[in-house]
Specification:
Layout (H helix, E strand, L loop, with lengths): L6 H18 L20 E16 L26 E16 L5 E14 L21 E12 L2 E9 L21 E11 L2 E11 L3 E3 L7 E3 L6 E10 L3 H9 L4 E16 L19 E18 L2 E14 L14 E14 L6 E10 L51 H6 L5 E14 L3 E14 L11 E14 L3 E12 L15 E11 L1
């Protein structure tokens, strides 16, 4: 089609496809985005954008019909009225609004993100008896302020301060949660200085990762101070990158040129002391006294490298991250001290590839990823501070068990970096202690002036890095097929019907009960209105 159509028509299709792709996978929230939209203005300007999304999901047998783990846990919830029922459902919504206020001139901007009814389950707050309700009550926190920060252009760079999104590379380590289907997203209370030099971007950032406990002063109770600075958690980050914005990258692609982008950052986090009583769940609140302060000696380092090659008809992008940490004293009970420190060495990597220009009717690619693991039972995704130690065959649990096991080596992908619909997204919780390959194809089945319909299919084959971490005690996890058909309108309507079928392998079986995991499925409908 590209060879026979006029150049202007092909260009319009390419730009339209690019806009649609960005609407489904929104711009990142990283150092390269700060100050990018500050331009000359004669008066105060305000822009508002965002989306309203709603999602409905039908989960078919995601407990795999393989019975409970040795600790009595199921891999996925089941019906309480009929444990043999095969389908569960959920429907939720979110209204996201991003507001940017630009001062006259070209030096200053203030930006805010607010989410209303964030991931609220529809029908979950009936007004009155469920059978007789005629309305829905408002949640206790109907509006959530996610970001509020300022940007100012200086003669030597850009200064940003406040609570801002945090994103880097593909988003396997830190992810701003900007996509239409994202659920969480990282935000940092940060002061950052970003400066361009020699066709690169250099950034230095300090994060107020955790501060407190706080206490009002004697004369001004509403004015609080940090009464124990030694327990504060500090994070310092330095980043450098060679980066092109979306418009520049697209111009180069249309001109037949290859764009090379890359970047790296190093981050150091530390905490000297700690007061576990200030954050651990307890039946009765514990007064914070000098006796509750204990030595922690926590240090962590993160190094991350990212690169992207954009060819005229292809894209290859990768990210690799290494994390190292040590805790001199891992005990959470003052007076009950451990002899040995707890250490951590984690490695994660992801590769994405796409072949086919945005205006092409067909495209394909191959994605791959790896997250280092830990030989302790369970995957270690959701591990509260007071969680019980897992048993062999459990799905989850803490990866360290001092004094015998003092290492936590499982790298966890950010949960908003999704590669599938079922196994890692719904059952395990994220990619960790595993490797995967993900071939995928896409096709445009219909095209109009203001809309298009596309379809895609991805296959994911995965295996565990440590067989001892899996419920079945074997490395092979499963093979999954995820089809999608989507409608994208230039006016802002996006509708996607998605499916997933997982064929579980030996790593998800239940050898204790001699039960094999059964094939499971999922159907999801997503509707989004972008503005």
């Amino acid at each position: 089609m590209r060879g026979s159509a006029p150049f202007a028509h092909a260009l319009a299709l390419g730009v339209f496809a690019l806009v649609l792709a960005q609407s489904k996978r929104a711009r990142a929230t990283g150092f390269s985005d700060l100050g990018e939209d500050i331009v000359q203005r004669d008066k105060v300007a305000v822009t508002v954008d965002g989306y309203l999304r709603t999602r409905g999901t039908a989960y078919g047998n995601l407990d795999l019909d393989r019975g409970p783990t040795p600790s009595g846990q199921l891999l996925f919830p089941v019906s309480q009225a009929d444990p043999k029922a095969q389908w569960l459902t959920n429907w939720d919504m979110r209204l996201r609004t991003d507001i940017a206020i630009y001062a006259p001139g070209q030096t200053l901007a203030v930006k805010v993100r607010m989410d209303a009814l964030d991931n609220l389950v529809l029908g979950s707050l009936p007004n009155g008896a469920p059978s007789a309700t005629t309305s829905q009550n408002a949640p206790n926190q109907a509006l959530s302020l996610k970001r509020a920060y300022g940007e100012a252009l200086l003669p030597f760079g850009l200064l940003a301060a406040g609570r801002m999104g945090s994103h880097w590379g593909l988003g396997i380590l830190t992810n701003g949660g900007d996509c239409l289907d994202c659920d969480s997203g990282d935000a940092a209370d940060r002061i950052a200085l970003v400066t361009p030099l020699a066709d690169h971007i250099f950034a230095l950032a300090y994060d107020f990762s955790a501060i407190g406990p706080l206490q009002g002063t004697t004369t001004q109770p509403n004015h609080v101070v940090d009464v124990e600075p030694s327990v504060d958690v500090h994070t310092l980050t330095f980043a450098a990158m060679h980066y092109k914005n979306d418009a520049s990258r697209e111009r180069r692609r249309r001109a037949g040129r290859t764009t090379v982008e890359y970047g790296a950052y190093f981050s150091h986090r530390w905490q000297n002391d700690d007061i576990p009583a200030s954050y651990l769940p307890v039946a009765t609140p514990v007064a914070v006294t000098p006796a509750e302060v204990m030595h922690r000696g926590y240090q962590a380092n993160a190094a991350d490298a990212w690169g992207r090659l954009t060819f005229p008809v292809a894209r290859v992008e990768f990210e690799i991250a290494y994390l190292q940490a040590s805790v001199d004293q891992a005990s959470l009970l003052p007076g009950a001290l451990l002899r040995d420190p707890v250490t951590s060495h984690q490695l994660g990597a992801a590769l994405e590839s796409d072949v086919g220009a945005p205006a092409d009717r067909f495209g394909f690619g191959l994605d791959m990823g790896y997250a280092s693991g830990d030989p302790a039972p369970g995957f270690g995704v959701n591990t509260p501070a007071n969680a019980q130690q897992p048993k062999p065959g459990d799905l989850d649990g803490p990866q360290a068990s001092p004094p015998n096991d003092t290492r936590v080596d499982n790298f966890r992908f950010h949960p908003d970096y999704r590669i599938d619909q079922i196994l890692f997204r719904e059952i395990i919780g994220t990619v960790t202690d595993a490797a995967y390959v993900r071939p995928h194809v896409r096709a445009r089945v219909a095209q109009w002036t203001s809309a298009q319909i596309t379809t895609s299919l991805a296959g994911i084959a995965s295996t565990a890095a440590n067989a001892s971490s899996t419920p079945g005690g074997a490395a092979p996890l499963g093979v999954e097929l995820d089809p999608q058909i989507a409608y994208s309108g230039r006016e802002g309507l996006f509708v996607a019907l998605e499916g997933g079928w997982l064929l579980p392998l030996a790593g998800l079986d239940n050898p204790q009960l001699h039960m094999d995991a059964k094939m499971v499925g999922l159907v999801r409908l997503r509707i989004a209105f972008l503005f």
